[in-house]
Structure formats: C-alpha cells, structure tokens
Design a protein that fits this description.
Helix content is 41%, strand content 4%. It is mainly α. Strands 1-2 form a two-stranded antiparallel sheet. A hairpin with a 2-residue loop joins strand 1 and strand 2.
C-alpha cells in the first residue's frame, strides 16, 4: 500500500492536526516504512503457530493473597460528618 502527501494531509485534516508540506513529506516517509514493515510481517507463514498472550514466555510473580491491614472502618467512620448503618451519608447533588 502506498500513500501520497495528499493522503497524509487528508488524514491530518481528519485528525484536526495542522501539518506543513515538509512535515507531510517526513510523515509520509515514516508511514511508508511502517506500512512496509506490516506487509513484511503479514507475509510470514504463521500456520500451526500457537498464539501467545505475551511476547516473552514469562510468568508473573504474585504475592500471597493474605490480609495485610486491619479493619479500621469504625475509626474512619467515627470522624465522618454523617454515617448511617455503616454507610457514609453525603448531600444529594442530583435532583
């Protein structure tokens, strides 16, 4: 797929980006390189290759699922302006 500077300017216009002639040529060169790389990757035969969830076959270290802090609900609600049945009461903002 090949682009022209008119295509770049049209894309910039759609994105509401102001672009000059020199910048359009520079962007055209970059976009052409990106599209070329995509064409190369699409040409690779990937039949029979299992998809991966990550590019590297690593496992993430997870921490133990244990409680690390104590429940301080009563302490926090004691300083709240208004509490009812364990819930914070706030002023009504939508009528």
């Amino acid at each position: 797929m090949s682009l022209t500077t008119d295509d770049v300017k049209r894309i910039a216009h759609l994105a509401r980006i102001e672009i000059g002639e020199d910048e359009a040529r520079s962007t055209l060169k970059q976009l052409t390189g990106i599209l070329g790389l995509i064409e190369e990757m699409q040409a690779v035969d990937t039949a029979g290759i299992e998809p991966m969830s990550h590019s590297q076959d690593l496992t993430q270290r997870l921490r133990e699922d244990v409680v690390t802090e104590t429940n301080q609900r009563e302490l926090f609600q004691a300083i709240a302006p208004a509490v009812e049945n364990g819930l914070y009461l706030v002023p009504k903002v939508i009528e």
